[in-house]
Amino acid sequence: MEKRKKIKRFCLVFCFIIIFLLGIGICIFLNSKRYYSPQYNSNYITGINIINIVNKDIKNKYQFVFLSDLHASILDENEKDEQIKKFLIERRNLFASSNPNNCSVEEIFEEIINYTNNSKADALLLSGDIIDSPANSNINFLRQNLKNLKTKYLYTFGNHDWSFTWEYHTQKAKETFRPKFNEFMDNLEVSYLEYKDLIVLAIDDSTNQISESSLEKIKNILEKNKPTIVMLHVPINTEYIKEETLKIRNRESSIGGSGIKIEESTQKAIDMILSEKYKVFYIISGHIHINLQDKIGAKNIPEVISAPAYEGKINLIKINN
Ligand SMILES: [Fe+2]
Questions:
Q1: How far is the CA of 144 from the centre of ligand 1 (A)?
Q2: Partner of 75 for a Cys bridge, out of 88, 228, 280, 296, CB 3.0 to 4.6 A?
């Protein structure tokens, strides 16, 4: 009789331990982040540049889809301005002719949104020239697509998003077109996404300059002292980036080199980004329309320039996973 009681007690304790361990296992499973590398239509997404980052100061896993230079030009029936209509058609044809599969920016961007959703990315990073001009049809295109996104996004200006060629970076463009992006950005100059042990910091350098008014905001964010990825549109110059750019363009297209004269505030911002005092560990950008990678500054910070999304090319940033 006593023996039977002992066996019963043992069975109860054993069951309790199993249930307890199972419970812990389920909790760990439910709380762990699970990312995916989903299938995609390769007519639309023609290449994914995988950027694997291991950082000992970051304990968690993160995944981001990052793109630049979609240069969307969408013509819809509501556009009545003849100059804008003509411009939209010309620019649409220009970038469509560079797409290897002859597919539209509508198809490409929809596929990128689906890919971002299916990969369970922490955010979609848009580093400028996503739309080619601030026509209402382009703004609507952005709104409609970003509405379908199931995660966060971070958007910084390219030189084209907020200007037509006949109002290129003019006072009128600043006052009339830039505010159209208030719905997509927390702040038009400096915005960021903050995670437990990571910050993605977007800085507007679309005029080849970083404004005086951005400096304090940048400093405040860097002083949070979290590992930080900086997202720009125009890359910071290195000798290699300069040489590769000059092979395909007749001008330099990065800031901080000899080709583009920068203001004091821009130099101060670059110095902060590259400073050993802060924890910037990666710089991502676009603008040049080729994929380049180099290291920069005393800390040898990797800088990646994205290939253009109008060719269907995007990047997948994987941190510690
Ligand atoms: Fe650009």
A1: 23
A2: 88
Which pLDDT band, with edges at 50, 70 and 90, does 24 fall under?
low
**What's the length of the chain?**
321
Q: Output the CA–CA distances (angstroms, integers) from residue 189 to 119, 157, 192, 287, in the order listed.
A: 29, 8, 10, 17
Q: Residue 250 and residue 294: Cα distance in Å, rounded? A: 21
Mean pLDDT of the chain: 94
Give first-to-last CA distance, the chain, whole Å: 55
The rounded Å distance from CA 308 to ligand 1 centre is 10
- Gap from CA of 244 to ligand 1 centroid (Å): 16
Confidence of residue 1 (pLDDT cuts 50, 70, 90): low
Neighbours of ion ligand 1 (CB under 5 A): 129, 158-159, 287
- What residue spans define the domains of the chain? 1-32, 41-319
Class of domain 41-319: alpha beta
29 to 60, 62, 245, 248, 274: CA distances (angstroms): 15, 16, 46, 49, 38
pLDDT band at 32 (very low <50, low <70, confident <90, very high): low
Distance from Cα 34 to the centre of ligand 1, integer Å: 34
Q: For residue 196, how many other CB atoms are within 10 A of its CB?
A: 9
CA–centroid distance, residue 271 to ligand 1 (Å): 22
Cα of 24 vs centre of ligand 1, distance in Å, is 50
At 281, the amino acid letter reads F
Ligand 1 mean position to 32 CA, how many Å?
38
